[in-house]
Amino acid sequence: MPLVTMTVNDRPVAREIEANTLLVLFLRETLRLTGTHVGCDTTQCGACVVHVNGRAVKSCTTLALSCEDADVVTIEGLSTGEALHPMQAAFRQHHGLQCGYCTPGMIMSAVGMVRRLGTDLDRDTIRDELEGNICRCTGYQNIVEAIRAGAQAMADRPDA
Fold it and tell me: Which residue stretches, if any, does this entry annotate as coiled coil (predicted)?
């Protein structure tokens, strides 16, 4: 079996894996980082979004071996110690979740969106950018408001 090495949430990891192991399964089953969810296996729902080398990607169709020497951040690695990341705090404050299944992917997508587009996001841009993320519980209104608030909070924290 091939060996894959990468940094996950600032920790170096090296494991022998099957060549066809998806990143989402590597994170969940091998590393026990279960915040990244499997929703559809077809890149339709976005529940599996993580950051690879600073870019938001859907881990359900990314081979773990393609992340050799990459820097991977999951929802577990987004916060610093006990302090929530500004986007996580905004989702909590603005009730941008219900059942919570899509929330990790929504938050990771939102952080990626802010890093790509900046902190001054309008509602239409946010809705367009969330096209690849499905929430079956909400009407997206609170998610959009949470992302706007989280983006503004990230503007106040350049390290976020």
Answer: none
